[in-house]
Amino acid sequence: MDFNTKQAKETVAHIATLIGDLMVAHLQQEDSPSLGDIEQGMRHLLQTIGREAIGHVLEKSDTVQPSIRCSCHHKAAYRCRREGMVITVFGRVKYKRSYYLCDHCRGGQKPLDTQFQIDPGEMSQGLKPLVALLGIQTSLDEAAKLTQTLLLVDISDNSIRQAVQWVGQRQVERESKWEKLSDWHHYMNSPTRQADRPPRRLYGSIDGIMVPTQAEWRELKTVCWYEVTPLPERQWPSRYTERLGKLEGLKATAIRYHCDIQEAKTFSTLLWSGLNLPP
Ligand SMILES: [Zn+2]
User: Among 31, 105, 110, 229, whose CB has the most other CB atoms within 10 angstroms?
Assistant: First the structure.
């Protein structure tokens, strides 16, 4: 999305002035607030604005039609505008959208939810990966606290678990697609094989570490693929060159990591597919 047009810049400047004035008026009632207080207050204010703006965007994107085509190929007639809720990076957003009901199969349709992949009452596509990132790094209850601190959104431990599993499932689907694509015969016969410019030299580094799982300790296998480019001499800090003399530096680039808890035979498929596909 490009907000760099002249009109967008003017609108942003206008909104910033309004928000700034609102903060100044509010601060006059406070007793010597710190910059930290101002930042925190501003974050909450912007969060509220974002929430209202997203609700506005959703409602404006909803079009009302007398009827739409149901998945059973019959007509679904417009019934009403129903309220929904979605948890976004700005918090819980309530919005109204058109609801259609099919007289043939009695199925209900909300085209706006389909268009924006909204699962009513659940996290949005924008929030889920962020929450999952926190859930992957630390325990679920710690991730819930971090979500509140960093994103100012209250999410239950259970929802964080679901987000982590959602990301894991997407990765499994992606890897199984890679495996299909990187099948040896498919690879050798693919017309695109010659079209891609392969790296002159590819480096691989494989390692494993024992990790505790619910049932037992298992080996987490990791592979890293990378290329190298020479590092110009001037980039070396003088303290290194003084101590070590002239260095022929190489820098790792296009680094790709893959890891999984799998038997060697199965892991080798992932290793091979990761090797063949673009990052
Ligand atoms: Zn139907």
Answer: 110
Q: Compute the distance between CA of residue 170 and CA of residue 102 in angstroms, rounded to an integer.
A: 32
Ligand 1: centre distance to CA 87 (Å): 29
* CA of residue 101 to ligand 1 center, whole Å: 8
Do the bridges between strand 203-212 and strand 67-69 make them parallel or antiparallel, or are there none, so unpaired?
A: unpaired
Q: Ligand 1 centre from 96 Cα, in Å?
A: 22
- CA 92/CA 218 separation, integer angstroms: 40
The CA 103 to ligand 1 mean position distance, Å, reads 7
> 56 C-alpha vs ligand 1 centroid, how far in Å?
29
CA of 79 to the centre of ligand 1 (A): 14
| E strands present in the chain | 67-69, 75-88, 91-102, 108-109, 203-212, 217-231, 249-260
Structural tokens at position 84: 């929904």
pTM: 0.72
CA of 10 relative to ligand 1 center, distance in Å = 47
157-164 average pLDDT score: 94
Calculate Rg over the CA atoms of the chain.
26
Task: Write out pLDDT tens, residues 170-184.
Answer: 988 887 877 776 666
Per-residue confidence (pLDDT) for residue 165, from 0 to 100:
94
**Least confident piece of the model among 103-117, 131-145, 213-227:** 213-227
